[in-house]
Amino acid sequence: MQLLAFSFGFKDVIDILLVAVILYYTYRLLRKTGASNLFWGILAFIIVWFLVRFVFQLDLTGALFDQIMSVGAIALIVIFQEEIRMFFYRVGSRFSSWKIFRPKMSEEDPRARQQILEITQACRHMASTKTGALIVLAGGDSLKEIVDTGERLDAQVSARLIENIFFKNTPLHDGALVIRDGKMLAAACILPVSKNQDIPQYYGLRHRAALGLTEKSDATCIVVSEETGHISVAEAGQIREVKEDELFLVLHSSATATLAD
Q: d(Cα 57, Cα 137) in Å, to the nearest integer?
C-alpha cells in the first residue's frame, strides 16, 4: 500500500494553527453547554475519516465516510443550532461594541435620565429590603416572544410601580419586568435559562435567566438578589455585581439601554 506523500510548508503551519484555534473555541463553547463529550466524539470521527480518506486512501471505506460526513454536516447544524446562534451573536457583539455601532443615549435627554433614576431608585430600595427582582431593558432585538409570556402593562417607568410589582407574594413578583422605549411593557415574563456550566453555584434562577436572555439578545438585565440584596447587571452573556451608587452610571453608559421613546 502506497501512502500519500506530503509536502509541508509555511502555509500548512498557518492552516494547522487556524484549525487549532477554531477547534479550541468550539470546545470552549460546547464545554459551557455540557456537550464536551459530543465534541470529542465528533473530533475522533473526523480524524478517522481523514486517515481513511487521505492517508491510507481506502476508496470503499472512504466513500462510506464521505456520505456520513455530507449528511452529518446538516445534522450538526440541527443539533448545535443554539450554539451556532450564540457564536454568531458573540461575534456580532464584538463589532457592535465599537463606538460607531453603539446607539448611545443622549446625555441631554431628560426623559431617559428620569427613567434611569426611577429604575435606580427602585433597585436601591429593593436591595435594602432584599426584595428579589429581574428587570429587562430591551435593546434593538425584538423581545415579543418574551413579552407575550407575561402580563401586559404599557405603563410609564415608575419606581413605586416597579417596587410594587416585585413585592413579595404579589401576583406579578415572579418573572421579569420588560422595559422598552420608556414604557414597562409586561411583568411576570418568562426568560430562557442559561445552560452555561461555568455559572457559579451561588447564582440563583434570576441570575441564570438574566444570562440566558443576554446570551441570545442585546438586552440588558438587572438582577436584585433576594438572598444577599446585591445588584448585578448582565450584558452579552456576562454578569457582574455593581454597587448601588454605580448602577446609574452603568445603565446610562449601556449601549442597549434604549429607554426614552
A: 57
Question: Read out DSSP for the chain?
Answer: -PPPP----HHHHHHHHHHHHHHHHHHHHHHHTT-HHHHHHHHHHHHHHHIIIIIS--HHHHHHHHHHHHHHHHHHHHHTHHHHHHHHHHHHHHHHTSGGG--PPPTT-HHHHHHHHHHHHHHHHHHHTT--EEEEE--SS--HHHHTTSEEEEEE--HHHHHHHHSTTSTT-SSEEEEETTEEEEEEE--PPP--TTS-TT--HHHHHHHHHHHHSS-EEEEE-TTT--EEEEETTEEEEE-GGGHHHHHHH-TT-----
Residue-wise pLDDT for 136-162, tens only, equals 999 888 889 999 999 999 999 999 999
pLDDT at 104: 46
Residue 131 burial (CB count, 10 A): 19
Domain boundaries, the chain: 10-79, 105-253
pLDDT above 50 for 1: no
- Amino acid 184: pLDDT: 95
The model carries a pTM of 0.66
Q: Is the pLDDT of residue 237 over 50?
A: yes
What average pLDDT does the structure give for the chain? 80
Domain spanning 105-253: which CATH class is it, in words? alpha beta
Mean pLDDT in residue range 89-103: 51
**Alpha-carbon gap, residue 170 to 133, rounded angstroms:** 12
Contact indicator for 132, 166 with CB cutoff of 8 Å: yes
